[in-house]
Amino acid sequence: MDVHVVEHPLAASRLTVMRDQRSDSVAFRAALHELTTLLVYEATRDIAAERFDIRTPVAPAVGVRLANPPLLVPVLRAGLGMADAAHALLPEATMGFVGLARDEETHQPRAYMESLPEDLTGRHVIVLDPMVATGGSLLRCCEMIAERGCGDITVICALAAPDGMRKLSESGLPLRVVTGSVDEGLNEDAYIVPGLGDAGDRQFGQYRRY
Ligand SMILES: O=P(O)(O)OC[C@H]1O[C@H](OP(=O)(O)OP(=O)(O)O)[C@H](O)[C@@H]1O
Ligand SMILES: O=c1cc[nH]c(=O)[nH]1
Ligand SMILES: [Mg+2]
């Protein structure tokens, strides 16, 4: 599995704001939005493009546009905070939605939403979720996407743990990962260490979900 860790001072400074427990939800959401812009920029460096003829006010020229605009899939809740930034850079993209909540005891993901095009054959799908911890949630999401025929999945996350990366890699699914960091590991509650806490709670608040 191809893994690209975006090592850039601008990305690192946004990650620092997200990690800092003093950052409130306004600062956290702004940093995630800006980090996503940087990650999407890096992740799409080799995206398929086609050339076409245009005219400037002065002369004929050759333009560039995306050959196969991707499907963006933010994973609810936390991935919602990445959706706008990704869509701003990829305005031609369409968007699907997957909702997953990790059980606090078992750490297994529970799917509560799957709103995706029926056929993803030949599509490039970009999955947005800030956290890959055990990897269970992203694996579940990527399985949903691969089952619909997709052979080209890019996962964009802010932070990943080695366990989660291993799980995704061993899945054999056609995916690559672009991340802001691969952290040390997981604690006994399967939170990333040092991580940033719960990315959903830090954006939207902590409340009981059913
Ligand atoms: O790799 P994993 O061990 O599966 O954990 C990562 C998942 O946990 C978080 O979502 P969470 O279940 O907290 O839902 P939320 O976004 O609604 O807070 C995060 O956004 C990932 O989807
Ligand atoms: O560290 C973690 C692990 C799972 N989900 C989060 O939001 N944070
Ligand atoms: Mg959460």
UniProtKB/TrEMBL annotation:
Transmembrane segments: none annotated. Residues 5-205 form the Phosphoribosyltransferase domain. It comes from Stackebrandtia endophytica. GO terms for molecular function: GTP binding; uracil phosphoribosyltransferase activity. GO terms for cellular component: cytoplasm. Belongs to the UPRTase family. CDD domains: PRTases_typeI. Its cofactor is Mg(2+). Coiled coil: none annotated. Its EC number is 2.4.2.9. Catalyzes the conversion of uracil and 5-phospho-alpha-D-ribose 1-diphosphate (PRPP) to UMP and diphosphate. It is an enzyme of class 2 (transferase). One of its GO terms (biological process) is UMP salvage. PANTHER family: ADENINE PHOSPHORIBOSYLTRANSFERASE (PTHR32315), URACIL PHOSPHORIBOSYLTRANSFERASE, CHLOROPLASTIC (PTHR32315:SF4). SUPFAM superfamilies: PRTase-like. This is Uracil phosphoribosyltransferase. Pathway: Pyrimidine metabolism; UMP biosynthesis via salvage pathway; UMP from uracil: step 1/1. It holds the Pfam family UPRTase. Keywords: Allosteric enzyme, Glycosyltransferase, GTP-binding, Nucleotide-binding, Transferase. It catalyses: UMP + diphosphate = 5-phospho-alpha-D-ribose 1-diphosphate + uracil.
